[in-house]
Amino acid sequence: MKKFIHKKFLLEVVITTIFFFSIEMIFRVVEKFTIIDWATFRIFLSCFFISLLLSFFTYFFKKDQTRRRVTALLLFIATIYAWVQAGFNNFLGVYVSFGTSGQIGAVTSYIKEFLLSYKLEYYFIFIPFILYLVYIYQMKKINKEEIGKIGVKPRIFTCFVLLLTGGLYIATLYIPFMQNPIQMALNKHLFFSPTNSSVAINQFGTSVFGVLDIKQQFWPVYIIEESFEKPEGNEEDTRVFDDTIWEEITREETDTTLKTLDQYFLSRPIEQPNDYTGYFKGKNVIVIMMESVNNIILNAEYYPNFQRILEHAWYWENNYSPRNACATGDNEFSGMTSIYALNSACTANVYPNNEYFTSIFNRFKNSGYTVTSYHNLDSTYYSRDIFHYSMGSMAYYDGNALGMSFDSNDYLEWPSDVELMEKSSAIFTQNTPFMAWITTVTPHQPYDGDSTYGNKYLSLFDDTAYPITLKRYMSKLKVTDDALGVLLDTLEEKDLLSDTVIVLYGDHYPYGLVDSDVDMAVDYDVYDFYEIERTPFVIYNSELEPETFSGKTSYMNILPTLANLFDLDYDPRFYFGEDLFSENFSGRVVFADSSWEDNIARYDARSGLVTYLGEERYSMKELRAINQDINQKKQMSKLVITSDYFADLEEKICLKTESSTTERNEENE
């Protein structure tokens, strides 16, 4: 009888392992992860470990059906979790984390669109669970009352196998030939600090990542590999800083995180002025983050006002707006700070009270500008009424403050960008020089139902074969184009056009559309790498000669570029983006999962593979250096945000400065 029970136990372990492993493999197939890989072996070990542990504990139950029901429940949880991860990545471009409040909100608000976005192959993930239910049913028919427990010796042996499997699993994190030498984060670090969800899910599978993610929420670990030293300056440098007080603060700092950040920023090179430094010095500036605007707006027939802007603009044809946990809120945050948003939380909502003396608002305000910001909705989605002020805006006007009428619960009827531009321009043009930040909203999803602006310009597209969803989006986009016309006309009427710089970028592509719809309306392959995330980026002034730039860029580069163009008082070491006119500009864009692309190569962080775009090649040393730099910037961004570093540093600098001033005054007396 005991031998029979022991054989049944081993059979259950094997069967459970097969089903857990099948879920993971189907997920890898639908997510286009590599199958023949050491990660697959690692995932198999974890599935075997989970199955052995599960079988070990369930065999304390007497009835077979009870054991199998517990297993079925855990299989169901694993299935749902993998299915949800695939859906989130498809819908929002990132994998979900338990600490991501903003991601959940983005889906619950658009649950219909979220479910409709699911591809047929994602439902294949349910196959192992369904087959296991069939297995339970068949076993119940064969034997309804089988009872038995494994003996003491087999339990001891099971514990030994668990330890052996666990040890082998940990070994796979360290054994050199099982590692990708250029992977964005080392497996041994990623296991204890799963900060990159895409790489972690690829290397460990969804089930293990889920466990690690929960652990990270309650017992967070952040691994910084390097020690940092301040570089020597050059005598010919013209942009220099007196770091005496900052260095004193660093020496006295007792908080490990803050000290690490001090040392890191002090170690960064100082970008020097270039031929474009002060190019727009003293001019007004308007930054417009355009909701759901991608390169469809380049169609001059439908969107003449954007074309009117391009006639006197610098245009970056390879600009991208990588989606993060909260595509709009996070990309607004990064545009304002040149800091990478958290990939596991909605940064602006979770940390709205953080202060950044480095922000675009504070840098312009420090240079004598009247700084205001505008949006035509309320704070239903993002806490702009808090974080815009924390960023340094002197006055934030939402749809209510502007006197606009809208229903924030009606997701089809978004407010008018035309009305937003009319009412905001009446305010910010009153005082010069001004810096205004405007976030539009009219082209926001959904597009599968009738709405005022979704239907307003439908007749323009009668002669096209576009699906109705795409037509509704393009109709809404036409309203944004009308708004740009209103802005240009207003500035011209007030004789401010030539003395104003307008910066436009899209917060993200219209992901409320299926990719095939987007592909119909643009002249590039949206299925190629991250081309779906291509968006326009423009710097306009009525006196500019038009010029097109081919270097890869993103919203991360807006702040350092403007700071240099307007010759603001700023420290470039605090920005993780680059000045687009710097002699050292890399022309590299970093995506949400830390994949990147420049004019030489593409690096897929999920697979760890490099694809070259021409004959030029990077050495392994260069690839490791690029990946290390990106990984450090993202790790440091997370520490900056979670510690409210800039608020702390500013306070300490102020206290030290006041103390030094007092001491000097006393000495003079």
Would you kindly provide a written description of the structure presented here, covering whatever features stand out?
There is one protein chain. With about 675 residues, the protein is an alpha/beta fold. It folds into two domains: about 1-220, no CATH class; about 275-590, Alkaline Phosphatase, subunit A, CATH 3.40.720.10. Helix content is about 50%, strand content about 10%. The mean pLDDT is about 90.
Question: What is the fold's blueprint, element by element?
Answer:
Layout (H helix, E strand, L loop, with lengths): L1 H29 L7 H21 L5 H29 L8 H8 L2 H6 L10 H16 L9 H21 L14 H6 L4 H22 L25 H9 L3 H12 L16 E7 L13 H7 L2 E4 L2 E2 L6 H11 L9 H4 L9 H7 L3 E6 L8 H8 L3 E3 L19 H12 L5 E6 L12 H5 L11 H26 L6 E7 L8 H7 L15 E4 L6 E3 L3 E2 L3 H8 L23 E2 L5 E2 L3 E4 L4 E4 L7 H24 L1 H24 L1
Parallel strand pairs: 1-6, 1-7, 2-9, 3-10, 4-5, 4-6
Antiparallel strand pairs: 2-8, 7-8, 11-12, 12-13, 13-14
